[in-house]
Amino acid sequence: MQAVKEKLHDMSEMRKAKAQAKAEEKAEKDIAKARMDVAHEVRLAKEAEAEMELHVAKAGEKVEKEAAKHAPMQPNASGTNMADHGAMSTGNRSLDDPAGAPPTTNTAGMNTTQAPPVKKFL
Length: 122
Known about the structure:
Elements: H1 2-69, H2 82-85, H3 93-96
């Protein structure tokens, strides 16, 4: 009778050990799945950031192209082309030499001399 009780006790202990091992394996699989999901989201964020940078670069090129199209091509009163030589001097250094002037800001407070900054997700 004692042998039967020991065998039942051993079977019960074995069942508990297997259940614990199975629970630990499931927890490890859940952690691995969470890591995979995070890696996937990071990859998507990097791809979106690269697309946004490309979009901003293309927009900048289009702005430059449109600005070049609309630059004054008519000769001014002195007979020179204003697009080639710039506007007449106003006496105000910041107006005459935009490179020497501080960057201008629009009403939203963004610097208009360069593209808006791109937010980094990570």
